[in-house]
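Submission checklist for the structure archive. All mandatory fields must be present; incomplete records are returned to the submitter.

[x] Identifier: alanine--glyoxylate transaminase
[x] Organism: Actinokineospora soli
[x] Residue count: 423
[x] Sequence attached
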Amino acid sequence: MTLIERHRAVLPNWLALYYADPLEIVSGHGRRVTDSTGKSYLDFFAGILTNAIGYDVAEVSDAVRKQLDSGILHTSTLYLIRSQVELAERIAALSGIPDAKVFFTNSGTEANETALMLATQHRRSNQVLAMRNSYHGRAFATVGVTGNRGWSASALSPVRVSYVHGGYRYRGPFAALSDADYTAACVEDLREVIQTTTSGDVACLIAEPIQGVGGFCVPPDGLYGAFAEVLAEYGILFISDEVQTGWGRTGEHFWGIGAHGVTPDMMTFAKGLGNGLAIGGVVARAEVMDSLTANSISTFGGNPVATVGATAVLDYIADHDLQANAAERGAALLAGLRAIDSPWIGDVRGKGLMVGIELVKPGGKEPAPEAAVAVLEGTRARGLLVGKGGLHNNVIRLAPPMTVTADEVDEALDALAGAVGSL
Ligand code: PLP
């Protein structure tokens, strides 16, 4: 049996695998990975935004190796872990949240489950606001707040959710409006949703500053700041899901929410922080973080291997000013894509190294998911890995490691122009 046959025999059908002939990646260096047949690819999806600083980074490997040399991968979070405390101090300071505390998890899902649990406990309400077209994870509450049909795997979530407009502009009812009018219309929608679909004592709003799975949708700067003013009137907490947008990836700001002129009550993070190691977490105002009155631990959350690795990643981002590189390379990528003339391209959007190409049937805005599959296969054939997403599965997503070079951006643009040109 081939590996894909064995995979299909023992792993669930709903595990989304890329490509008609799925890849097995066996090694990586820089922004390139090699598959089991020896073919090399430029990775413009960074795994799935997991590889913030690229593959085979000596500083991260050395930090992890030093931990392994101690003989301990992990004991228990019942004991003090120095690297966990130090990383928490660092993330609390980076967050800009006053009096912040950090709880570590192993994934973005667990981070958002924790944030939702904290908000609902703190506010004594299970009513939650979320954005249409959002994605927040795959467990009970997070799948419940996710506003994207393709990822809404369970209909039995314990939270009561109301969805608001704002995250996905290209197809929303306010698409034609100016930034200011769009923001005003979304604020009005938010107010109406609170007043007409909830009892008013809502726990929180959870939102991605740039929607990831939803297709790298960028709302106008300041939208969530305007939302926060309404939330404050009702005492509703604001959770910024930074699982994709954190650590400087959006270029202009260290956190995606930085573009909105508001400090959230909580931020959740995961993906790039460990550069492939499993680590996520929540950073929140102490008053909110400490609102649980019973014990609650994560056996592996904040384990020493993950926290020494994550510390090395944050050092590397700062030492190499990768936020600036994300801004510069992202702008070049966006400009290069906008110069590609194709009737299949409906929208090119993004910020920093989160860039989306929404594919449509020529002559209109009808989604073209089959074109996205063809571009995915066409770029692979040209030695480039990209991502796919969007409500209609018709968005190509580009998010290379933040160490990406100008030459690699040009190489990716050539492959993309070739694949789009073959549609
Ligand atoms: N939040 C966002 C914005 C995400 O993009 C994801 C994963 O894609 C998650 C949460 C869930 O993270 P994980 O897959 O690590 O559980």
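[x] Structure attached
Curator remark: The pocket of pyridoxal-5'-phosphate is lined by residues 107-109, 112, 135-137, 208, 212-213, 241, 243-244, 270, 280 (CB under 6 Å). The first strand starts at residue 25 and ends at 29.
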